Recover the amino acids of this structure.
């Protein structure tokens, strides 16, 4: 039997508000559309609904920009209050040019605008990334187990840009029960070579696979990956495996 | 009905040799495993079998390294003949440090070792990337149409590293009948905001989705994506859409 798996979008999840139980909403919506969650499913969950449920929202009217944020906002042609929020989420500015602000967040992500977004939130409000997306993933996984008895994997995902290539891709910013990396080190190819330098970013590829049915405009914030290979499942965290140590990074 | 699609690995494709018809081999193998190719399938094809069929192989014994390649190989701790091959495929060295050689290829890809690889080829031989992967994809697509009458999409894919994050991901280096990018510009989110800066790299996400069933060690060089959304299908090329113009790139 050839290896195969399926990706299914979860429709009908209502607008999420602070304090909502994301797992409860996902389970109900998946059941309603006839694809109830079961053991060994992977849930890929867009960061935005997790951030909203966790109350990671900031009203720009409540933000007083610092002089630095104001100066940067002028240079970038952006709202100074938004730049202030981005800088508060950041540990370092990596690039600032052509209207683009790329930072290293306190989590260690290098991305545009520290992941702070205005789409899919109320006007005048911005959403921050979850404070600890690995923890968010674990909590979601635990809640699914409590409600259904089923052991699932969870990926919290967001769309990030990348150097050199146009277009965003969905990537994992938090995982529970999913392997961020799959190593082929020490295994052999069919010709008998030992495979070297071959470590695949499984969770990122799963996040991208899920994005294809999620869609920003269609209101589908969650996808189910059904038929996962056991090699994709493992206790781990994005933070310990995915972020490349600065000392080993050639593009800082 | 929720959006859904399936990813199926194609097993049983024999070792590919120069001059082989890749489309013929894929069709036969897919049929043999009971998942015969049909209209609107997407085929994600690992670069290596395309390179082999196109004869993009170099025997290291035939390579005389230049003094520059020899000096760089010493600094990197690598085979000077391999470095010579990499430099011939390159337009520019982007980074050279910690044993890693990252270049811009003549195609415009920024990647390690110009995509030159020793795995899954005979000992003493290395495989280059296809000369023009968009063309390779078009030829493969045309051949499938000739043999079956079915109109399919084709992605030629390779695993590339990226800055800041550990692990390789599979990405599109050539397409035919598949959209490299899906733009949401001008569309609205459920809250009524106009979506901005939201262009998804659909072909790269599809390549990653396929990699999960392909696997370097398992000898599965092709995957079928079945149930593609029409928005993923469009006449285009990777070269014109995916490579970010140097003038707009902040990480050169």
């Amino acid at each position: 039997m050839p290896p195969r798996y399926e990706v299914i979008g979860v429709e009908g999840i209502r607008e999420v508000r602070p304090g909502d139980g994301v797992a409860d909403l996902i389970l109900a919506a998946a059941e309603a559309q006839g694809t109830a969650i079961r053991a060994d499913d992977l849930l890929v969950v867009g960061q935005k609904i997790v951030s909203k449920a966790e109350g990671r929202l900031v009203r720009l009217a409540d933000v007083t920009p610092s002089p630095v944020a104001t100066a940067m906002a002028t240079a970038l042609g952006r709202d100074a209050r938004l730049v202030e929020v981005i800088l508060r989420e950041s540990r370092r500015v990596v690039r600032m040019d052509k209207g683009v602000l790329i930072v290293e967040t306190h989590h260690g992500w290098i991305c545009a605008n520290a992941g702070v977004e205005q789409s899919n939130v109320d006007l005048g409000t911005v959403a921050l990334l979850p404070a600890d997306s690995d923890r968010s993933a674990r909590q979601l996984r635990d809640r699914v187990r409590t409600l259904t008895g089923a052991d699932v994997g969870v990926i919290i995902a967001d769309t990030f840009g990348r150097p050199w290539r146009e277009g965003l891709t969905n990537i994992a910013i938090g995982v529970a029960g999913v392997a961020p990396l799959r190593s082929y080190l020490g295994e052999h190819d069919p010709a008998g070579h030992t495979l070297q330098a071959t470590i695949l970013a499984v969770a990122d590829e799963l996040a991208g696979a899920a994005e294809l049915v999620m869609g920003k405009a269609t209101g589908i914030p969650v996808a189910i990956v059904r038929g996962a290979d056991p090699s994709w499942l493992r206790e781990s965290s994005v933070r310990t495996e995915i972020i490349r140590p600065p000392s080993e990074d050639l593009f800082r």
